[in-house]
Amino acid sequence: MSVVAAQDLTVSSSCQSHCGGIPIPYPFGIGKDCYLNNDKWYEVTCNNSYSVNPVPFLSSINKEVVNISLPDDFNPTFGLIRIKNPVTSLGCSNSEERSFALNVTGSPFFVTAGNTLVAAGCNNRALMTDIEPQIGGCESTCHVGPSRRVQNISCDGYRCCQAKIPSDRLQQISIKVESLDGNGTTTSSSGGCNVAFLTDERYTPSNTTEPELVY
């Protein structure tokens, strides 16, 4: 997610500056009076209950923080905070469905256009919802000829697919996974493990064609 730049980037030296080896720069902070205007959107908690090393969480949405970068010469207007989000899945574990939704409406954050929806699995339709009036998504299938498989060097529909988010500065987005029959019609029965997720990293068939590994 991107975050609007703060003007005053100074904070007391007594504030905790790292959590689990991850720098927590102002306007974010750990503890009272250590984040911008005590605005809860900038509050980070250092959680010790998830692993051996402490893990930083963005308190307002309870998401694990991967990295925080402040505005620089390359991007002077916005900083960037990377967070971990769950993988949306269907038919991967006891036919249990997992979903993903993010809502930061009213916050200084928005989802950047650098994120991509990636989906993997057979007869898989992945949709980005809660972004009305727009809609976006992609479909992946395993029913193509051998020549297509040989040439498949990007996630363009064979066993994995991808789609850019339709606009920048989204503050709400959800991911939905549907199972399709051979005619492209939605079906209630899953044809196997299907997954979808948002990422700012580049994915190819080599690391997405086995959805169980992603899940």
Automatic annotation (TrEMBL):
<keyword id="KW-0418">Kinase</keyword>
<keyword id="KW-0808">Transferase</keyword>
<keyword id="KW-0472">Membrane</keyword>
<dbReference type="Pfam" id="PF13947">
    <property type="entry name" value="GUB_WAK_bind"/>
</dbReference>
<dbReference type="GO" id="GO:0004674">
    <property type="term" value="F:protein serine/threonine kinase activity"/>
</dbReference>
<dbReference type="Pfam" id="PF08488">
    <property type="entry name" value="WAK"/>
</dbReference>
<protein>
    <recommendedName>
        <fullName>Wall-associated receptor kinase galacturonan-binding domain-containing protein</fullName>
    </recommendedName>
</protein>
<dbReference type="GO" id="GO:0016020">
    <property type="term" value="C:membrane"/>
</dbReference>
<dbReference type="InterPro" id="IPR025287">
    <property type="entry name" value="WAK_GUB"/>
</dbReference>
<dbReference type="InterPro" id="IPR013695">
    <property type="entry name" value="WAK"/>
</dbReference>
<keyword id="KW-1133">Transmembrane helix</keyword>
<feature type="domain" description="Wall-associated receptor kinase">
    <location>
        <begin position="152"/>
        <end position="213"/>
    </location>
</feature>
<keyword id="KW-1015">Disulfide bond</keyword>
<keyword id="KW-0325">Glycoprotein</keyword>
<dbReference type="GO" id="GO:0030247">
    <property type="term" value="F:polysaccharide binding"/>
</dbReference>
<keyword id="KW-0723">Serine/threonine-protein kinase</keyword>
<feature type="domain" description="Wall-associated receptor kinase galacturonan-binding">
    <location>
        <begin position="15"/>
        <end position="70"/>
    </location>
</feature>
<keyword id="KW-0812">Transmembrane</keyword>
<keyword id="KW-0732">Signal</keyword>
